[in-house]
């Protein structure tokens, strides 16, 4: 692999992907165009009017595992369109609150997947049983329905993103578009004190290009990045209601050159989901992910690159207001005998790269997150640190946020205070994560609930 790295570096010198740019301009079809055609346009029943224009035919569902979601929705949808002359549908950009699209306030279930093998309950230790008692919330109908609402909002906003994000737009426009959409559908602008804790963005919208593998978000006051037709863009955003976060991501490209890279990572993520389950060893999930991912190669400008699973970033479990709750699911073989447990929530995500597969911190800042175990009040000689800390507690709690989220609340001149909170350890700083120059990377991610009845892939859609 060392030699591959050297090759890649020298290629990186003349870094612009030479012929892919050409292919883009002519032959390449925007990935979003695939999506808008391939999917059935069903983002829940609210989308019902689509039937009228005949856009939906049979066999439109080309995605891997979306049978449950799409077929049930299609049936309901047809019925409804007949009954009502004007069914409310989602606007573009998305601005119709989800509650208005679902008058009965019952939101669509995620995809159900059975556990691969049923493990006897008696095998569980007492400690696990006890921990499970405190995790019974995912069987609570109210929490579950809210969680499904957040997932449906994710599907509707990402559908719009896939249909409209195009080269020539700035990353700020795309990020703000996503965030405005999420907040409108939640019907919560999050501008009043405390509202952001009720519902909102789960973390900073990630728009990471090419060799930036993860954790890039545009910051105010910095030179904006314009999306290029040769870019491979990971779109990673979260929607939370009462701190229960849907964490789901996909990758967009506008050049078929990268189709195999995207296919590898989508396959790896679906393999991870398939292998996940109660009492399953995390190392077994990791091994399956790696095997799927690394069975692919991608040809870029006449050179063949193996798709590598990224080594130092992983999937994770989620708890209320905690995006990374302590368990990690690497994408490479490991000796971690930790098991997944009943009642847990996991973000199953994978990253594949044509680069080295080892990430390093890039320049700039992605976001900040309060240490969940940090005290409510702090003593600091810096007044700005104290007031900033209060703002964070009131609006984000331990949710990760970015500078844009802070500035829309009217917070100004916070950098000195923030630096102080970071160095005192009350707040953690997140930076962009990079692979080597000239490399390309992709990501797909779903949130799954390990329920009694099986896995619920809550963020599954017809797109991925
Ligand atoms: Co995640």
UniProtKB/TrEMBL annotation:
Entry EC number(s): 3.4.11.18
Localization per Swiss-Prot or TrEMBL: Cytoplasm
Biased amino acid composition, Basic and acidic residues: 31-40
Chain segments carrying region Disordered: 1-112
The Peptidase M24 domain, residue ranges: 147-449
Cofactor list: Fe(2+); Co(2+); Zn(2+); Mn(2+)
Binding site for a divalent metal cation 1: 236, 247, 445
Binding site for substrate: 215, 324
Pfam families: Peptidase_M24
A biological process term (GO) from this entry: proteolysis
The keyword RNA-binding belongs to this UniProt entry's keyword annotation: no
Start-end of Basic residues biased regions: 74-86
Listed name of the protein: Methionine aminopeptidase 2
Taxonomic classification: Eukaryota, Fungi, Dikarya, Ascomycota, Pezizomycotina
């Amino acid at each position: 692999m060392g030699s591959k790295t050297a090759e890649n570096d020298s290629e990186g010198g003349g870094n612009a992907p030479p012929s892919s740019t050409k292919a883009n301009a002519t032959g390449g079809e925007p990935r979003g165009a695939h999506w808008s055609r391939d999917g059935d346009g069903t983002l829940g029943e609210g989308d019902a009017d689509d039937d009228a224009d005949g856009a939906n035919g049979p066999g439109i569902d080309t995605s891997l595992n979306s049978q449950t979601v799409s077929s049930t929705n299609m049936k309901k949808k047809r019925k409804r369109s007949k009954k009502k002359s004007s069914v409310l549908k989602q606007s573009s950009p998305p601005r119709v609150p989800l509650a208005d699209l679902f008058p009965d306030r019952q939101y669509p279930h995620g995809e159900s997947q059975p556990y691969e093998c049923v493990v006897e309950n008696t095998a569980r230790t007492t400690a696990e049983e006890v921990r499970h008692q405190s995790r019974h919330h995912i069987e609570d109908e109210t929490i579950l329905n809210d969680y499904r609402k957040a997932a449906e909002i994710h599907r509707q906003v990402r559908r719009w993103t896939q249909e409209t994000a195009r080269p020539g737009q700035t990353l700020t426009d795309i990020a703000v578009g996503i965030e405005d959409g999420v907040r409108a559908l939640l019907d919560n602008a999050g501008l009043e004190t405390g509202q952001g804790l009720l519902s909102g963005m789960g973390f900073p919208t990630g728009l990471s290009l090419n060799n930036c593998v993860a954790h890039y978000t545009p910051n105010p006051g910095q030179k904006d990045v314009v999306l290029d037709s040769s870019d491979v863009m990971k779109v990673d955003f979260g929607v939370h209601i009462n701190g229960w976060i849907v964490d789901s991501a996909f990758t967009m490209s506008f050049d078929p050159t990268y189709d195999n890279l995207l296919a590898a990572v989508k396959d790896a993520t679906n393999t991870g989901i398939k292998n996940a389950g109660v009492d399953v060893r995390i190392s077994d999930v990791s091994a399956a992910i790696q095997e799927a991912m690394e069975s692919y190669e991608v040809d870029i400008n006449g050179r063949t690159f193996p798709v590598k699973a990224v080594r130092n970033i992983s999937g994770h479990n989620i708890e209320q207001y905690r995006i990374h709750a302590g368990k990690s699911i690497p994408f490479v073989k490991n000796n971690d005998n930790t098991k997944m447990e009943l009642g847990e929530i996991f973000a199953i995500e994978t990253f594949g790269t044509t680069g080295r597969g080892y990430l390093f911190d890039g320049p700039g800042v992605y976001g900040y997150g309060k240490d969940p175990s940090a005290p409510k009040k702090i003593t600091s000689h810096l007044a700005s640190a104290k007031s900033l800390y209060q703002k964070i507690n009131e609006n984000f709690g331990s949710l990760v946020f970015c500078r844009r989220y802070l500035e829309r609340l009217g917070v100004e001149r916070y950098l000195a205070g923030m630096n102080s909170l970071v160095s005192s350890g009350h707040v953690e700083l997140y930076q962009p994560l990079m692979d080597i120059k000239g490399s390309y990377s992709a990501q797909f991610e779903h949130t799954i609930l390990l329920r009694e009845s099986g896995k619920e892939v809550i963020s599954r859609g017809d797109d991925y």
